[in-house]
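Internal ticket - ligand job 483, zinc ion:
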Amino acid sequence: MIPGQLLYPLLPPQGTPSIISPMSRRLFGFLLSVYFLAGCGSYQPPKTPSLQPIGEDPEVRISREFRREAKKSLKLVQNIEVERYVNQLGQRLLSVMGPRPFEYLFFVVENSQLNAFAVPGGSIYVHTGLLERIRSTDELAGVLGHEIIHVKGHHMSRMSGPDPSSLLALLGLFLGGSSQAQAALALGQALALTRQLSYSRQLEQEADTLGVKYMAEAGYEPKAALVFLKIIDQERVLNPIEVPPYLMTHPVSQERIANVEGVIRSLDLKRPKSELPDPLKKIQTILRLERRESDAVIAEYEKQLSQNPESSEAMHLLGVAHYYNGRWAKARDYYERAKAANPKSPGIDRDLGRGYTQLGEFRLAHLAFERALAAEPNQTLNYLFQGELYDKELKLPEAVDAYLRAAKLSPAWAVPVRRLGEVYGKMNRLGDAYYYLGRSHLLSDEDEMAIAALERALKYAGTTTPRGEIIKEELDVIRARKR
Ligand SMILES: [Zn+2]
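stdout (structure tokens):
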């Protein structure tokens, strides 16, 4: 759910291709609604990160095909705060790991089992069951650092051989509902197949050693990786029947624990730890709100607040719960109290900004986002929500600017790009609108819809302009990679 998202009139244009979903019909529809003409300059964005020239890396292809299947078979958490929390953590780890031959994408799966897994080519999945069991963001950094090393070191192809098609079939096991998984279960071979996906001792050690080293370099507490290993090892001892899937693919041994302890001892920590407060508790609360447990969440934090009237965390999370239920004034009141009790409550100024935006208190909203940006200038969400504020005020060129900054900070994320398309639609700049709409489909692995939108954008741009040249090139690549 994206609170505050505007609804647009449903006016599908003539001849909309049949591959366009009702959702996109609405998008195409609003593009026709004319608000006013504004003349801000055309921005030439960098190439879409997921697009590789013809003859792409087989691992990148595996990753894309897996993502398409995963969208159908797995229940992915769509919440943008949760999505960004995991992605930005991943990007911070990657920032100290040197060059990347492909884009890394992180997804959260609504599933209570403790699990995380990495697909060759950079797609990494974390279960909500894991996010809810950990006690700090540092622990998640340990898990993601380890998974990134499996991808970066091509561990899966190193253990299963180079044949991409057999690898993709094996990976189907991660998709509970896939035909391969069902067939395997019918034959009682699921366990044996899962063992085939289990990393060897040597690869686990490599992922631990490098993962811990990089998480420390990125400013996370390396001891948290050890805490996590010990938690899942305990789980195995306490409950040997229902072993968490994570343990099947990443077997924990005393040898692994001893290795991580040795790596931590050998670390020469130069990087200071991050000063920002840990947002994990807020993320865990949002996951519960997404599951419609808001009554329980509110009762719990009201009780906490009555026992400890100074708890800024309880005030803040009550604000979050009321916000998710559309009770903006109540949300704002709790946010203001939380801010007064603890100005460093995680992301409090951003939350205040959103609350004020919903209530039409635009001046206060701007001040709140300015404070949020001063504290976290590289936080994509600060720009995205600032864009929503400008959008609501009908300051469309300013909204474009804010969404562009968000897109620049998180170039592989479809949401700010889609918003750009929407704002350009309102500005009646249909060429730009279709262009960004197409790119957002591309970033969402929706090639057919991307082609439809980019073809329309090409008509507006003309084939001989610089923008037209880029669109033609992108269209060629998408068409060439179609099966
Ligand atoms: Zn592993």
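Auto-summary: The longest helix spans residues 201-217. Confidence is low (pLDDT under 50) at residues 1-46, 177-190.
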